[in-house]
Please model this.
Amino acid sequence: MLIQIPNVLTKDEIDFALRELKQGAYEDGKVSAGEIAGQVKQNLQLKRDAEAMKKIAPMLLDALKRNAEFQAAALPLKIRDPLLNRYDVGMTYGLHVDNALMGEPATIRTDVSATLFLSSPQDYDGGELVIQEISAQRRIKLPAGCMVLYASTNSHRVEPVTRGTRLAAIFWVQSMVRDETRRDILFDLNQIMDSVDKKIDAAEKMALASIYHNLLRQWTET
Model:
């Protein structure tokens, strides 16, 4: 799984988030990292009790709820409140894998990771998200308001920022469908259903919907 989703946020929402983040209270990003990841993590994150976090987090979670492509790809059961990360010049996050379990007191299993870019790519150099797949590396640097989803089992890193500031929101999702291959099958089928909606008759639509929902019924955990 590696899915890029455009326009998760509106321009007004991006502008609001950036205004709040400029005056936000930050702390060392190591406080949210495990022992191993903390050794390679060099960034800042908005404090969870900061006033800016209280304003931005609900807006971002609402954006995920209304985004049909995110819902179809992640099939979220639980979404952990976002981390708002900041990378200034020289900051980086070395190769790591996200913790399998996150959150206190309510713990979620991390099946899907997501990075929602808040800074425009023109505002900073470096800072690419590099995701290690089986046979290749994918370098991701998206426009502000766009998101990339990937399986939490993938190793990944953030390249050093060499100019400007990189701001992004990070989410983790416990999916109703734990298995990545099954999630991919359901997402592909969902996309096919959308693409052929106006090209097939009602009986064919019903047949596709039956297949989708019967697979979902077989594979979901709630």
